[in-house]
Amino acid sequence: MSGKGESRSFSKSAFTSTSAGRSDLWRMVTKVAKDLPIRERNAAMFNNELMADVKFVVGSSGHTQTIPAHKYVLATGSSVFYAMFYGGLAENKEEIEVPDVEPSAFLTLLKYLYCDDIQLEADTVLATLYVAKKYIVPHLARACVTYLETSLTAKNACLLLSQSRLFEEPDLMQRCWEVIDAQVSD
């Protein structure tokens, strides 16, 4: 970086080349990344097999996606991942099956852990809330609840009421009741 506030762009492909030997690849990565802030270096490693030390097979059978990750990044953002990889009962598996999570929600979780970036969508926000709760990532869970509260309507209030009970979210539950009560009063 040449000045405060400036950011250097980089090509993620520089971090994913597999044709180079390991030492050549390492030299290329360090040359490209040496001046990048940590956030951009971590972002380049998101969903990237380079130096990945764990793979997750995410989704139900027949609809799985294999997602590479880096234990260190995950463990610094989630106490569940820390216990899974470094705790007293840690298993040293290279591949971990996660059949109860949708791949898109798991990728949203990883994007937050790697990039500190939350991008929620209506069709995956409930699955993302589930994965945020499962891996105890409170900031992401709060963002999901806020998203749900702001998208609460009379049409989805009953669904979100049942989900707020399931996820033990009393504030969302209260908002759902308010919307339902307003509809009954009209």
TrEMBL record:
Lineage: superkingdom: Eukaryota
GO biological process: what's one of them? neurogenesis
Query: Cellular component per GO?
Result: cytosol
Output the Pfam families linked to this UniProt entry.
Answer: BTB (PF00651)
Q: Coiled-coil annotation: which residues?
A: none
> Which intervals hold domain BTB?
52-122
State the name under which the record lists this protein.
BTB/POZ domain-containing protein 3-like
Which species does the entry assign this protein to? Diaphorina citri
